[in-house]
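Work Package 3 (structural annotation) set out to generate three-dimensional models for the target panel prioritized at the project kickoff. During this period the team completed the workflow that converts sequence records into discrete structure tokens, so that structures can be stored uniformly alongside our sequence database. As a representative example, we reproduce one entry of 304 residues exactly as it appears in the project archive.
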Amino acid sequence: MQDFVDYLTYERGASPHTIAAYRRDLEIWGETCGVEPVPEALRAIDLRSARRQAMQLMERGDSPRTVHRRLSSLRTFFTYLLKQEVVESDPFAAVQLPKMERSLPPFVDADTLVSRIDRLYGDAETAEREEDRDHLFLIAFVTDLLFQTGMRSAEVRSLQLTDIDRPGQRLRVIGKRNKERHIPFGPLLDQKIALYLSYRDRRTRPEETHFLTTERGTPVSASQLYSYVREALEPLSGYSRKSPHVLRHSFATALLNDGAGLMSVKELLGHEEVSTTSIYAHTTFEELQRMYRAHPRAHKPHKE
């Protein structure tokens, strides 16, 4: 198992979160299907037993999305075993994956987000206590940064000071599988970055290289980032999910609603396939439909 983890880490550049998911999927597979991860047992799995094991995973009562992910994990695992010549074939390659309904990603509309972010910045300026000013400014800046760049949680948390090119107004981002991309930003965010750096310098040791730090000057963790965003979006009603990823969805949706091309948004988001980005096009079409319903001729005709 450790050799497979090393393969995911160093050859595929998988994140710790992804690796943990693979490990969990393989453990559940072993427990559910009674499979020991030893060469003899793995070589004994043929197409028939792979299909039976897939059925056992489905019978656990998990969602089709979860089963789909677990079977995909098994395909990746057996592809690795095949490369290492531990097995002679991948029996799961021919197992049909369960169909999933592709849900539209949740997002907050741009006007609502801009209004909320501006309100937070304003509250930070008028707060009486310094610690309140610093806290409100931090959650405003984190929310603003995520909405204006569309970065993933892991990407923004791994940003280094050297990744911020203020003269060129762009960010150097290391995404999934260690792929590098550059995200431009405008004068407004540049102004906020300058204010944030002033705030950061008061709280953070000079030797700390992470761009985003907490009020105590330590690198922001995944749970802290989630907490900042949730606090920032908490007053907004009608939005059940309030997380960094919702801001990423909101970034993509806002760009497409304002006329950006799908391929451009794909590059900004760091997607490998345009099909992944295309789901946002469905979201924006739903928004267009909602807007069109306000048209006086959009309703059913009156009976004569």
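The chain has two domains: 2-94, 110-292.
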